Structures
1.
Amino acid sequence: AAYDLALEQGADYIEIDLQMTADGVLVALHDKTLNRTADAPEGVPEQYCRGLVSKKTLEQIKMCDAGSWFSPDYAGEQIPTLDEIFQRYGTSVNYYIETKNPDAAPGMEEELVRLLGEYDLIEPAAENWQVLIQSFSAESLMKIHELEPSLPLIQLYWAGTSKSIQRDLDAVSEYAVGIGPYKKDVDAALVEAAHERCLAVHPYTVNTVEEMEALIALGVDGMFTNNPDDLDSVLGDAALSGEAAAQQAAEAYRECSAGL
Ligand code: CA
């Protein structure tokens, strides 16, 4: 439901946080535990929908209600698998996928790359940035880079400082095409230092029009938001389709890299 609404509101990418079940299936869930956003419906054992995703089987997780916590309108929503998301949207949308808690889920990167291959998404990812892969874990990104060097990767940063991120950019540019800093760490110096290395800058999570305008003025290339309709309004005539935006970003990266 959230992905459908995001696309309706003009999102260029849908953002997918990955967790891995005990039986090795990739599912989309922000938190590492089920506690905040899942409930056991009547007749389902409570423990299926409590605790770490990594300790549950897909069968158990599929019994949980992942919508009621938010609103009764979404009662009965299931936690989707990555496979189901790819089946639903195919190559009609762009995917911005985050490997989460990769240390607790050995094999997550291999399974992600396998699924991207199965759905013929590796080439469109490399060519047109139809898929971007993000992580706070440099190790996870470097692993993906080894498995499939053509995939475009974004290094996320916990809240810190512009300077501390700038010191990391040379190392990051070895495997990534961009960075995802906390919005308050973005200043003109960071954007400039990133762009000198051809790295895109995608701050998170930007939910007010004031923040969006300020970051655009600083020269960021994209942003994570819960309100894609507001970002679309802020961009006005400059708003592109998701397909065009992703293609343009991939092309700009290629041109910039060729000039380095
Ligand atoms: Ca995320």
2.
Amino acid sequence: MSQMMFEKVAFIGLGLIGSSLARVIVANHLAKQVVASTRSQKTLEDAKVLGLIQQGYENPIDAVQGADLVILALPVRATQKVLETIKPYLFSHAIITDVGSTKGNVVEAAKAVYGDDLPEGFVPGHPIAGSEHTGVHAGRIDLFANHKVILTPLPTSANWAVDKLICLWQAAQAEVICMDVDKHDEVLAHTSHLPHLMAFNLVEQLANREDNLDIFRYAAGGFRDFSRIAASDPQMWHDIFFANKKAILNAVDGFEKQLAVIRQLIEDEDSHALMGLLGHAQAARQHFNHMLAKSPLMENKKVTTQQFTILPGKKSFKGKFSIPGDKSVSHRSIMFGAIAEGTTHVTGFLEGEDALATIQAFRDMGVSIEGPKNGEVTVHGVGMQGLKAPKSELYMGNSGTSMRLLSGMLAAQKFDSVMTGDASLSKRPMERIAKPLREMGAQIQTTGERGTPPVSITGSQMLKGIHYDLPMASAQVKSGILFAGLWAEGETSVVEPEPTRDHTERMLRAFGYPVKTEGNRISLQGGGKLIATNIQVPSDISSAAFFMVGAAITENSDVTLEAVGINPTRTGIIEILKQMGADLTVENERIAGGEPIADIRIRGSRTLKGIHMPEDQVPLAIDEFPALFIAAACAEGQTILTGAAELRVKESDRIQVMADGLKSMGIDCTPTEDGIIIEGKGKSGEWDAIFTGSEIESHHDHRIAMSFSMAGLRTSGAIKIVGTETVATSFPTFTALTELAGLSIQVSE
Ligand code: S3P
């Protein structure tokens, strides 16, 4: 930025924060003149030598004359005195701001000087950045980069002043947030002041013990991590604790209450409740990490996301593998377990981020859930009327299944709720579920730009059963409606244009809830109850699909995928690969936990051939097409897909994104409205490279990333796939298993 924003900027105080901001102003030429006033002559001299100011004054009156921006960068307790001193000399349109960590008392100080008629240029602020170093030399030009700055404009503050300050902080690469003064002090009391108070207090408690030397000597990482912030400046924290007294005392009261709760649970040896509390807190902490990682700030920053690199060269692809649990079944095991009566034990649970988002949502609604640990989860059901209002928005991450199924459930609760998701989920259509739910009497709004999330729901216990003809083959929409139907009056029925995955129907029956399936019509009566049961989650055929395709396109491969779910509503991939001529056998078929499973063996013994993919298999292979497109590129002849427009509204537009990637790797293909035409480059009996190397943008779609990884088995150049971190949503062990099979993927951040 080179535009001159200010004529003269006056800093009152030039420590770490002030001098860092001065560095930003000077480096970006934001002011014609920068001056400062501090009590230390040495600081002023040093600041001049550092090129931060043109003039330094001991008296603030000299500094502020003619300044159009005055920045109070001194201890908060000095605010009133300084304002009193400089008030008569301030330019009438000057912007006056500060950088203190409490805001209510800064406003009080200003009111003591000006009365209620505060200057319109007065806008308090708080950059949330710091360091253990202090003084003018400690300042850094990047101190605020990617940190938050909170401005607390007052009713008297003019918009032009707020806007100019926002531009100033943005020049420092900070993310600016505007907040009400009380809210600021309350938030900071909980997230910063209380943790500091607790750290000081715990260290004090231990330091007062007679055996304190031993205790500190043997203190492990936990103590070190927890007490790190107790090494901060005592004077500063002394001032903050008094300055934000009211909000801090509230936070301390809340802490004492919560401490009493956990104390009681330990005294009573209430294992179930203690596990619930600890599990909820642990998940909230992990969730919080996740939120930080996906904050808009990070997105703006275009942080390098994860990427996969696969080098060229002939590879083998062999072995017996156990693929992680089915995502659809994992979600549903938590959802039904939560509203059942009794305790549900789940094994084989997919510990991927999507299913974890579902667990978190139910924990937020008061359900005690233990695990997941080694795929085991215990859900202590609360019954049909037992869910509690979540304290804040429910964050669904990348998971469309969570959001659409929960829409039906939440529409029928006695409380209101809001669901949000990550950047990909925030673009996905939610009206498809909102519309039928409204017909049932639900009050539900898709508050995004085009019928997209956030989804905002006003709970209602008066839903009515409907009959709904699904306009698209979607198991998520079907399931969302059936969910609402559990609480609705009378019968709820849906007719699907084509059969889609029926895990909801199967699992409802497993939980003792009658569901009728007559052809494509599924119906149930509202008002029943679910009885807890044990759920064994089969391996996910959608994840196994990548290994099936990998084996089908690699010479002499031999891969067996054990105990994979082969529910007939999911086996389109097997049928299509067989029609393409793959050497694939389904062995050892059996039933586990109400779902059919089998071992699937695929060998790379013959070249695949291009086909017109059967439209009736589309809903049964809906998630597997990105992988099948890789198979089609290696096949001999043309492959045509039609009737698959739904692929355009998955985690990405899978037709376009795959077409772009394939073309960049030398494959001739044409995307169409509802499918794609791929000119296969395979030749019967030949196993040479098919793909040229390329850099692929996965659009943060897990299945796109994993599909292009398989192209690495037949590539003549390096393949780099960008945005692969979402692989963890459905297949956290993907790269470990490909490595075992013979396909090495370098993962870098
Ligand atoms: C799912 C249904 C499908 C599928 C998704 C999981 C489910 O979505 O693509 O990965 O668990 O019900 P649609 O209902 O949008 O087809």
